[in-house]
Amino acid sequence: MRFRRRGVEVAGLVSGVTERGVPRRVVGDPRQARVDPSTPRLPAIPSERLSPDALRERFRHPPDWTPEFIDDRWRLGDGSPRPAAVLVPLVCEPGGPTVLLTERTAHLTSHAGQVAFPGGRTEPTDASPVATALREAEEEIGLPRARVEILGSMPQYVTGSGFVVTPVVGLVEPGIALRPDPNEVAETFAVPLAFLMDPSRHQRRLYRWDDGAERSFFAMPWQRPDGREHFIWGVTAAMLRNLYRFLAAQAR
Q: Minimal CA–CA distance to 246: which of 89, 55, 117?
């Protein structure tokens, strides 16, 4: 897949320190960050371009495109980030693909309660980022790797917690009974891909600290049919925004 890199942008911030012990600024409640009304309006991806066959074709013949977010390196200390991978699972539901996401448990020391893709750090036995993503998804949410059709990978993303993450996109059969690991995952939920590929649902938010420092990030709040809201933001939202850019780019 070919892509061009634009200037580095910050996707989101979390509290505490990196795994290398480097302090970083704390974002209290990202929901309280104000929405930037000046974000340009962009068109939604048409539904016919979100079908499984259209997604297969896009990954088989990728366009030249520019990812919007690639890096959180302003938060990193010295040393190289360690490899990791996440699976971006697109469930082939009859009414249109959905994106399978997790909400992390509240007791975790890192990113507690946040929305994330299943994934984690690369182990020495992993042959590739695809192997990492599939292994982690199986361990984390009980998604059998044999039930995932890999489409391809998105550009790597360097996080402020010290990892270089490869998002691996795959199609998943519907109706699979998942088994989330209760130590890591509070719950899994699915969001329509059409919702997430509609930029009118993407909020650029601005967070300002008392000393005047300011950072921006994307958020994609999603309200479930039962009224509960999942606040998708930070790295997860940045990767979804990159997926939008990839699907919106003109074919060669």
A: 55
